[in-house]
């Protein structure tokens, strides 16, 4: 039996891969829902299904796309054009970011991909300098990709991400979006797939502690037999409670403001997304009457009162939509205080590998050592790889 603890994307990926190979799998999740930091839910104030936070997947994220395809979620995703309109909300300056815009600044691009060498401790600001394109290209790209401000983000990690994308060609920067929400693409089809394979799924089942040969939950103790394996796909703070020798990893927050408008908006640039600089919000996405704004690396914002956040985000958005800044529409603010790791040089160096002191238990999750920052891609790759290691089956796939 494979016990998978945590039904985020890493745990779902491990469970789907192992069950496909015919392994009996039991999935244990602490909360009453799957998806972890990447999920949708019905919000009664807005009377809409919303995501905990807008997520963007690019075509370079092959594991995420393969996983969605394998579980039948790909038809719930749409591929968009690699065209990202931006507006500076303070000055009104507007521009469009595209892969070709990157190519037009070859020296900056070479610096960004680390072509002149990068020390492990270098930050993105140190590697790029505050050049003309810093505030229009690199700063918004870095904070969106690493959820960490350029002044503290790891330049080698950012460089690696750009190299992985460019190596696959410009189309790898085509974005994928989720018109029916994240859960419709990743979570619900994964749960259906697991149920069709008779995987037992236990919600409200928090793992409290472990012994060499036992998993201890609130209401039961599961003895592990010699052939049993465990994939522990919980976030870093939960894993640290179980294995105190793991490093203390710093995190960064993301705040999302969801607004329900009277009619579907048209954003400047006429794409379903818009990048913002010069204010609080950084990305806007539109889905029907739902307008969602993301604030990444939001340590200054997350501590504020939700009504104040909603009003300040709306005051930035309203002029772009030609609506009244004084009438904030019905809204929901979601604060994810520990959305991802802080991708600083120190924290990146602390990401542990998947092994634990118990030979039958393997760690998984976006925070495990990876060429990817903490993303859907990192979570899914790590879940698959943990299942492969736990079961000694290197060819396992979704
Ligand atoms: C607001 C926001 C925006 C984001 N935007 C993007 C984006 O645009 N693109 C992108 O690729 N990524 C994005 N991410 C990151 C992405 O969501 C995560 O990297 C990914 O979901 C992590 O998956 P995971 O399975 O590793 O961890 P988690 O999703 O944290 O899953 C861990 C699961 O373990 C459960 N658990 C915890 N403790 C226990 C226990 N003791 N017993 C049993 N279960 C337990 C939790 O309840 C949870 O369900 C974003 C994240 C947030 C929060």
CATH class value of the largest domain: Alpha Beta
Q: What is the residue-averaged pLDDT?
A: 96
List low-confidence stretches: none
What is the helical fraction, as a range of percent? 25-40%
| Biggest beta sheet attributes | 7 strands, mixed
Rounded to an integer, what's the Rg over CA atoms?
A: 21 Å
Walk me through what this model shows.
By secondary structure, this protein is an alpha/beta fold. The chain has 3 domains: 2-78 and 179-249 and 346-391, FAD/NAD(P)-binding domain (3-Layer(bba) Sandwich); 82-173, no CATH class; 251-341, Protoporphyrinogen oxidase, mitochondrial, domain 2 (Polyamine Oxidase, Chain A, domain 2, Alpha-Beta Complex). The protein has 12 helices and 20 strands. The strands form 5 sheets. It has a 7-stranded mixed sheet, sandwiched between helices. A 5-stranded parallel sheet has the order 10-2-1-14-20, with helices on one face. A 3-stranded antiparallel sheet has the order 5-9-6, covered by helices on one side. Helix 1 (9-20) runs parallel beside helix 8 and helix 1 (9-20) crosses helix 12 (376-391). The chain is globular, with a radius of gyration of 21 Å. Bound molecules: flavin-adenine dinucleotide. Residues 5-11, 28-31, 36-38, 52-53, 55-57, 206-207, 233-235, 238, 254, 256, 336, 339-340, 365-366, 374-377, 379 line the site of flavin-adenine dinucleotide (FAD).
């Amino acid at each position: 039996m494979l016990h998978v603890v945590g039904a985020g994307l890493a745990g779902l990926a491990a469970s789907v891969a192992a069950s496909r190979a015919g392994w009996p799998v039991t999935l244990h999740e602490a909360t009453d829902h799957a998806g972890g930091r990447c999920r949708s839910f019905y919000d009664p104030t807005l009377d809409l299904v919303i995501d905990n936070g807008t997520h963007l997947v690019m075509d370079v994220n092959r594991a995420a796309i393969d996983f969605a395809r394998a579980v039948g979620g790909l038809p719930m995703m749409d591929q968009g054009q690699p065209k990202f309109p931006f507006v500076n909300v303070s000055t009104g300056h507007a521009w469009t970011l595209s892969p070709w815009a990157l190519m037009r600044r070859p020296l900056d691009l070479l610096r960004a991909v680390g072509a002149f060498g990068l020390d492990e401790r270098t930050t993105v600001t140190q590697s790029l300098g505050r050049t003309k394109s810093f505030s229009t290209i690199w700063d918004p790209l870095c904070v969106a990709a690493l959820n960490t401000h350029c002044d503290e983000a790891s330049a080698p990690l950012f460089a690696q991400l750009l190299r992985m994308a460019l190596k696959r060609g410009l189309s790898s920067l085509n974005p994928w979006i989720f018109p029916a929400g994240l859960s419709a693409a990743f979570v619900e089809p994964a749960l259906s797939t697991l149920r069709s394979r008779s995987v037992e799924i236990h919600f409200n089942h928090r793992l409290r502690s472990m012994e060499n040969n036992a998993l201890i939950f609130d209401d039961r103790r599961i003895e592990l037999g010699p052939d049993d394996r465990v994939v522990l796909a919980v976030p870093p703070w939960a894993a640290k409670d179980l294995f105190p020798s793991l490093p203390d990893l710093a995190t960064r927050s993301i705040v999302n403001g969801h607004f329900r408008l009277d009619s579907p908006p048209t954003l400047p640039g006429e794409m379903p997304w818009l990048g913002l600089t010069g204010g609080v919000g950084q990305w806007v996405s539109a889905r029907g009457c739902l307008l969602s704004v993301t604030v990444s690396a939001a340590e200054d914002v997350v501590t504020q009162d939700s009504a104040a956040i909603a009003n300040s985000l709306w005051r930035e958005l309203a002029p772009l939509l030609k609506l009244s800044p004084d009438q904030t529409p019905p809204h929901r603010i979601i604060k994810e205080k520990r959305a991802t790791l802080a991708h600083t040089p120190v924290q990146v160096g602390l990401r542990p590998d998947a092994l634990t002191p118990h030979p039958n238990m393997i760690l998984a999750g976006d925070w495990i050592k990876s060429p990817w920052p903490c993303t859907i891609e990192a979570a899914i790759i790590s879940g698959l790889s943990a299942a492969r290691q736990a079961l000694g089956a290197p060819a396992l796939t979704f």
